[in-house]
Amino acid sequence: MHPRIITLANQKGGVGKTTTAINLATALAAIGERVLIVDLDPQGNASTGLGLGRQQRERSSYDLLLNESTVKDAAVLTNVPNVAIVPSTMDLLGVELMIAAERDRAFRLKSALDNVSEVTIDNKPITYVLIDCPPSLNLLTINALTAADAVLVPLQCEFFALEGLSQLLQTIEQIRSTLNPRLSIQGVVMTMFDKRNNLSEQVLSDVREHMGTLVYDTVIPRNVRLSEAPSYGKPALLYDLKCAGSQAYLRLATEVIKRERQLRAA
């Protein structure tokens, strides 16, 4: 069976996309899934946050987009059990210029992931692919949305959250109508929630009012351990399983799988 492909997208930076990609992957793996992360951000924070040094990135998502590597050859096992990654390098910064004139420029990642069932962990196929996007609505993000079955939107509990969300939703709708009719919204996860802050409560309430049941019940708190973990090259779930952030990502993984079952049944 072909794995489910979920893109994590938001054109705003600093909303917890990479933190969510790493920790959701780890949480999914902890409950029995086998996960491949595709790092599509030139900054490569997902790769670094999973402990992958620059010398371990012989092939990368750049090579996938230029048709110079298969996903099987580019995928690297991480120190997290049942999690592999296609790492990113700074070369990605130049990929738009290199493929902008190509007719299939929006479908490069989709074509590469057509063979993702060849990627195995312990001789078993991958069950989920999570794509970590850069903080912009550029050709990299368009490739990620074109390749995906669903999009998961991390949204920071801050004043301009809804403003950025409406722009992203317009892009998703455009992709759905022109490039990828099967694309659905998996859900919106509110991140960096601070219960001591009235604004966080207000933003959460506003987003729930606008997006209804698309907003996950699980809210990711502002948490020091979540911030510290990447500097040790570990997901928070391996760095401190008991911290509030790790526990929230375990609950989110359970919610994601529940929704996936509903989406598949629909």
Provide structural commentary.
This protein is an alpha/beta fold and 266 residues long. Helices cover 42% and strands 15% of the residues. It has 12 helices and 9 strands. The strands form 2 sheets. A 7-stranded mixed β-sheet has the order 3-4-2-7-1-8-9, with helices on both faces. Strands 5-6 form a two-stranded antiparallel sheet. Helix 1 packs across helix 12. The longest helix has 22 residues. The mean pLDDT is 92.
Provide a concise account of the structure shown:
This protein has 266 residues and is of the alpha/beta class. 42% of the residues lie in helices and 15% in strands. Helix 1 (17-30) packs across helix 12 (244-265).
- In N-to-C order, the SSE pattern is EHEHHHEEHHEEEHEHEHHHH
Lateral strand order in the biggest sheet: 3-4-2-7-1-8-9
Q: How helical, in percent, are the residues?
A: 40-55%
Q: How would a textbook summarize the main sheet?
A: 7 strands, mixed
Form type: globular
- Low-confidence stretches are none
**Tally of contiguous helical segments:** 12
* Rg (CA only): 17 Å
Whole-number average pLDDT?
Answer: 92
| Secondary structure tally: strands | 9
Strand content: 15-25%
- Tell me the span between the first and last alpha carbons: 17 Å
Which structural class is indicated by helix and strand composition? Answer: alpha/beta
Task: Please describe the structure with a list of short key phrases separated by commas or semicolons.
266 residues, single chain, 7-stranded mixed β-sheet, alpha/beta, two-stranded antiparallel sheet, 12 helices, 42% helix
